[in-house]
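Lecture notes, part 5. Sequence design as translation. It can be helpful to think of inverse folding as translation between two languages: the language of shapes and the language of residues. The source text, in structure tokens, appears below.
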């Protein structure tokens, strides 16, 4: 993290001091970002090339060659610029005293805000439109409905009814991935859930204690580092909620091939503003890009939140 401190801030403000306020509880680390593939590229955009699936065919003696033309598709990853800024009056000496410290409360709060922003972008990316095709790579690509577990999904033979997170929905998500040759026992796959989803599963265990799935969920609740129906789990409050329909969007994905993230280090700047009676402005700037890499590697799970 680059840290620029205005030289005109008095030296005695830069000494150690007793904390004058505490941070409100905030997200202190990225959560979803720890469970996606991180890539790095310079500049604002990067374009990736994908090949169509290839197949073998039977060959007879002395037959003519039958090559097929390679079909390449492009997908564009674009960084977005974000900022967070606060301002202090020059009379706020107690606050100004700690501004130059890398662990300044204000800077820590900005880091927490950035963590939330990145995780929110990942949650949106699972179901967002991505762009690619031929140059200038503006063809819209949406997540197909076949990659979605409906809000009213029940196991085959049941009567469809809106519900929260259920074992059957998680099992269906795993099945969709496996139908796409994403095997949970061969590569890491993750399930992003929120506290409401966890509560749904706890209530399932309570109401169906003898159910075979309840036993598996109870085992996971005892240690959330254990797999849940083959998935690594990550708890997040950043998952998308459609307020108009009271539906949460949880999602399952391949850790390596599902969602990609690129972010540049935060740039923290501290400036004196003469036009504001020499107030101190603290600015944090960050660039990040998030992209769903392949549609077949991501599954969304709709969960009802009707009161």
């Amino acid at each position: 993290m680059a840290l620029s401190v205005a030289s005109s801030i008095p030296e005695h403000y830069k000494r150690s001091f007793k904390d004058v306020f505490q941070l409100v509880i905030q997200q202190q680390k990225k959560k979803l970002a720890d469970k996606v593939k991180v890539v790095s590229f310079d500049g604002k955009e990067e374009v990736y090339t994908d090949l169509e699936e290839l197949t073998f065919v039977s060959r007879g003696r002395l037959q003519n060659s039958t090559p097929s033309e390679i079909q390449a598709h492009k997908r564009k990853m674009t960084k977005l610029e974000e900022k967070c800024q606060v301002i202090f009056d020059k009379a706020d000496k107690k606050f100004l005293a700690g501004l130059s410290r890398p662990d300044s409360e204000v800077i820590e709060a900005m880091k927490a805000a950035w963590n939330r922003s990145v995780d929110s972008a990942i949650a949106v990316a699972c179901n967002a439109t991505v762009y690619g095709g031929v140059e200038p790579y503006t063809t819209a690509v949406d997540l197909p409905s076949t990659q979605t577990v409906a809000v009213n999904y029940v196991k085959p033979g049941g009567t469809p009814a809106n519900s929260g997170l259920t074992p059957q929905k998680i099992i269906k998500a795993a099945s969709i991935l496996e139908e796409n040759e994403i095997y949970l026992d061969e590569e890491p796959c993750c399930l992003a859930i929120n506290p409401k989803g966890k509560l749904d599963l706890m209530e399932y265990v309570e109401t169906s204690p003898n159910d075979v799935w309840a036993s598996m969920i109870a085992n996971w609740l005892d240690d959330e580092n254990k797999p849940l129906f083959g998935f690594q789990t990550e708890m997040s409050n950043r998952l998308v909620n459609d307020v108009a329909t009271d539906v949460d969007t949880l999602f399952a994905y391949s850790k390596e091939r599902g969602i990609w993230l690129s972010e540049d280090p935060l740039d923290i700047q501290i400036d004196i503003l003469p036009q504001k009676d020499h107030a101190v402005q603290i600015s944090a700037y960050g660039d990040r890009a998030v992209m769903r890499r392949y549609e077949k590697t991501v599954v969304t799970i709709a969960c009802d939140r009707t009161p």
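The translated text above is only one of many valid answers, since several sequences can fold into similar shapes. Residues 1-22 have pLDDT under 50 and may be disordered.
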